[in-house]
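Support request, please re-run this one:
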Amino acid sequence: MRLGVFDSGSGGLSVLKSIYEAKIFSDIIYYGDTARLPYGTKDKESIITFCLEALEFFKSQKIDLLIIACNTASAHALSTLQENAPFPVIGVIESGILAVQKSLPNLDSKLLIIATKATIASGQYQSRLQALGYCHISAIATPLFVPLVEENIFEGEIIKACMDHYFKALDFKPDGIILGCTHFPLLSKAISTYFNHQSLLIHSGEAILDYIKLHFPTLKAEHTELSFYASSDIQSLKTTARVWLNLP
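Re-run finished. Output below.
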């Protein structure tokens, strides 16, 4: 079975990692729209247009399933993609919400959502969590993290300065931090350290894997072939993939 994974850049590698290590797909085609990164600062109409163009690429690859490994695209374009795709299309927000329910079932848990401006503005995480009964929800747009990850900067003084900029005004300790951008798991170590390892980090990579196994229980592959494509600077994407996926 051939899987497609789409992201605005390299962030979707955090979703790909869990799936790749599970060895359930014979082929995985990853496409990063790096020429137009970041999506999080774009308007809804532009995001939908970019995603539909990516969909045409995946149609040519004759995939069987597509994962939109981008929270911003999932927030604004998922339904449009599902209407126009000849194969199932899965977003990451739903699986992220499921991960919260599984990891932090206490509805009094203090939740912090960090994501791009567009994802935060969509209110997708906030409204879905509120509908489930969670009552302590804060959301902060942290757009500077995305270009830093794209530059393979995962730790250090620059990251620390950005965290001080975004988080120093917080007046509570989060029980859970929802990494509402697939770039952010690459900053997991730095984020966890910043919050003194006292906050549970939640992202959709492992939850997506659980979702796939639930809906496609017979999937199995002896070997998984990876292919990487990008709209710009493919070498940088491949470099990040080698680091994050431990590839030779």
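The CA atoms of residues 58 and 188 lie 30 Å apart. The radius of gyration is 17 Å.
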